[in-house]
Specification:
- This protein is mainly alpha-helical.
- It has two domains: 159 residues, no CATH class; 132 residues, no CATH class.
- Helix content is 70%, strand content 6%.
- It is built from ten helices and six strands.
- The strands form three sheets. It has a two-stranded antiparallel sheet. Strands 2-3 form a two-stranded antiparallel sheet.
- Strand 2 and strand 3 form a beta hairpin.
- Helix 2 packs antiparallel against helix 3, helix 2 packs across helix 4 and helix 5 runs antiparallel to helix 6.
- The radius of gyration is 23 Å and the shape is elongated.
- The relative contact order is 0.16.
- The C terminus is likely disordered.
């Protein structure tokens, strides 16, 4: 799709404002998770991109000299396409890495590790994600820039790639969450019908069903409108520019969704009841669970 450069500037400006606003709102615990550290790095990259595009676009001669190199609007379009491709390629690696981070936090209580140590580890992983993804885009992918064959001062719009990874990620994780909820419900019913004499197993099944029910309830109470928005995008086949696809709001949604998936799939109810499982920090959902005395025992 072709997008005018002023529209790109407006989109990047709004995205930067959103990124830094959400970083500020999560400032108390943002360095404690991989997604939080990655969100900071994304805000920095978006800001640098917005500054570069704005500087070249508003210059009267249509170009800027930087370290002896002449940067024109050709480079603006090229930079936007490269960054968009990197953002698209980052979607799945970020999801997998953040999912592993949340899984380890819940099952191994990694929140007890010193904040500085966690921040250093998350920063290292974040840097590796950016580096490896950039190398993949430049060396292994079939990415080919699309440039207009006109003088640089006549370029007023850029060809930008669109991303479909957002809907793919959301659909896969939501299906996983739904399957976990269905499995918990069926397991509780199965134990009730076939193992009436095994009170312990039956109690565990009901406790797990309670955890899954509460986790899904908390997630939907917070993100129901966002899910409706994603459904509208899916049904109307709206193309999302790749340079806007990876943003702080999307990462906050992923954080809550991954927490819900990990709690439903990998966290025993007994650990939550006894305080042996740590829930990753979340600025949008309050992950509080209540248990009956039988479930706690």
């Amino acid at each position: 799709m072709y997008v005018s450069i002023p529209s790109i500037l407006v989109g990047l400006g709004g995205k930067c404002l959103l990124d830094w606003t959400l970083v500020f709102l999560q400032r108390e615990h943002i360095c404690k998770t991989l997604l939080g550290v990655f969100c900071i790095s994304l805000a920095i990259v978006d800001s640098a991109l917005a500054v570069c595009v704005t500087t070249v676009h508003v210059h009267a001669d249509g170009y800027v000299l930087l370290l002896g190199s002449r940067l024109t609007r050709y480079h603006v379009c090229l930079l936007v396409q490269i960054v968009g491709q990197v953002y698209s390629a980052l979607q799945w690696p970020v999801v997998v890495s953040a999912g592993l981070d949340h899984f380890c936090t819940v099952t191994l209580r990694l929140n007890s590790i010193a904040t500085r140590t966690r921040w250093l580890a998350c920063s290292l992983v974040t840097a590796l994600l950016w580096l490896l993804t950039a190398l993949y885009v430049f060396l292994l992918s079939d990415f080919t820039p699309v440039m207009e064959d006109v003088p640089h001062h006549q370029i007023h719009q850029c060809f930008v790639l669109h991303t479909s990874q957002i809907l793919q990620v959301a659909m896969l994780l939501l299906l996983t969450l739904g399957c976990a909820a269905l499995h918990a419900g069926c397991s509780a019913r199965l134990f009730k019908n076939l193992l009436k004499d095994q009170i312990t197993d039956q109690t565990r099944a009901h406790a797990r069903k309670s955890v899954v029910h509460q986790a899904v309830h908390v997630f939907l109470n917070t993100w129901a409108l966002f899910l409706v928005f994603l459904a509208v995008l899916f049904l109307t086949c709206v193309e999302i520019p790749a340079y806007l696809g990876l943003n702080a709001a999307w990462l906050c949604f992923l954080n809550s969704l991954l927490i819900a998936v990990v709690l439903c799939v990998a966290c025993p109810a007994s650990q939550l009841a006894q305080g042996l499982a740590a829930v990753p920090p979340d600025s949008f959902c309050e992950w509080r669970f209540t248990f009956s005395s039988a479930a706690e025992d």
